[in-house]
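To illustrate the input format used throughout this study, we show a single complete record. The first block contains the structure-token representation of the backbone; no residue identities are included at this stage. The design step must infer an amino acid for every position from geometry alone.
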């Protein structure tokens, strides 16, 4: 196992074994909507480290999925090893390090920090695998990310923003299913309270009068205590509610490509009082106007109409076959190992 390095910038990879190795780069990268996906092939022992990103709006969470071999990680005084069939969540809001041996092949999915914090108030509690992963959910998540990489690491995904939204939703669902009972955490009571508050917000997003005062009253806590729960994640109650409303609106628009509901109707449905304000917030958050989400969905290739790539011998085959060859064995073959919790 390669030793961990000293501090290096986020863009700088260090500690690659071998001098003057001019072989092919061991990384394949692609961007899917707001997500960055990287496949690190077994090539050389690798060690990399990232400096802390100061702003939450510029930071990401890194979700690491070993496919073969194992990956060592270190963050916030916690160290461990993730093996095939497992994952580990790391934060760019604090310095962390990764290292792997020459046999390791793994995926790194980078999710904007604001996206996960808009779905899980307690996301920082799950950094560096503090709790035991849910085995069934982990297999589903690892399989889905492996499938996404297999299909789209070389070719653009249709309607990438919609795909990114669904991936982020399932990541949040999986992380939220981690078994906190396996760890002795003095903040368990705060976690369960935050979970109730998030559930209340989710069920009342369409309420235009939803306010911090009403949210605090639903759990019989003071406003100051409510604010402190969200301060733990460097966000505010209002920011959290708005992010969830925008995400809900995106899901509604993507699921309604024929336009049965207007943008105005969707804005009011998710609790916005002003359509212009909704459009500005939506465009700033997703980098696409609400009306354009449906156009992107309509322009996406229909199932069964995949473009066929021409092979060197002149024959044609679906793009999926080319991607599968590049990615290696089907992703589900690497998820049969027993999951282990490493402390």
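Output of the design step:
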């Amino acid at each position: 196992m390669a030793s961990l390095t000293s501090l290096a910038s986020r863009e700088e990879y260090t500690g690659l074994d071998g001098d003057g190795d001019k072989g092919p780069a061991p990384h394949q990268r692609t961007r899917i909507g707001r997500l960055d996906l990287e496949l690190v092939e077994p090539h050389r022992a690798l060690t990399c480290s990232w400096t802390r990103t100061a702003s939450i709006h510029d930071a990401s969470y890194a979700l690491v999925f070993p496919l073969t071999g194992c990956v060592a990680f270190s963050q916030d005084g916690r160290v461990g090893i993730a093996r095939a069939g497992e994952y580990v969540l790391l934060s760019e809001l604090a310095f962390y390090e990764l290292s792997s041996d020459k046999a390791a092949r793994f995926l790194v999915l980078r999710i904007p920090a604001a996206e996960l914090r808009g779905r899980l108030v307690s996301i920082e509690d799950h950094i560096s695998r503090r709790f035991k992963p849910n085995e069934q959910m982990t297999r589903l998540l690892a399989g889905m990310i492996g499938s996404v990489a297999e299909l789209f690491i070389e070719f653009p995904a249709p309607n990438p923003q919609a795909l990114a939204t669904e991936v982020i939703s399932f990541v949040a669902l999986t992380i939220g299913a981690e078994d906190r009972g396996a760890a002795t955490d003095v903040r368990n009571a705060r976690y369960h309270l935050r979970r109730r508050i998030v559930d209340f917000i989710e069920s009342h997003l369409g309420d235009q009068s939803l306010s911090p005062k009403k949210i605090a009253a639903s759990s019989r806590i003071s406003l100051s205590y409510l604010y402190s729960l969200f301060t733990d994640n460097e966000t505010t109650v209002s920011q959290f509610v708005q992010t969830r409303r925008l995400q809900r609106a995106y899901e509604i628009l993507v699921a309604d490509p024929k336009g049965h509901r207007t943008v105005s109707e969707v804005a009011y449905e998710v609790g916005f009082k002003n359509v212009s304000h909704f459009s500005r917030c939506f465009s700033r958050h997703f980098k696409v106007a609400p009306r354009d989400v449906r156009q992107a969905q309509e322009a996406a290739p229909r199932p069964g109409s995949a473009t066929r790539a021409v092979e060197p011998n002149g024959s044609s085959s679906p793009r999926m076959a080319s991607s599968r060859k590049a990615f290696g064995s089907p992703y589900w073959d690497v998820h049969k190992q027993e999951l282990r919790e490493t402390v």
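Structural context for interpreting the output: Residues 13-184 form a domain with the Jelly Rolls fold (CATH 2.60.120.10). The first strand starts at residue 13 and ends at 14.
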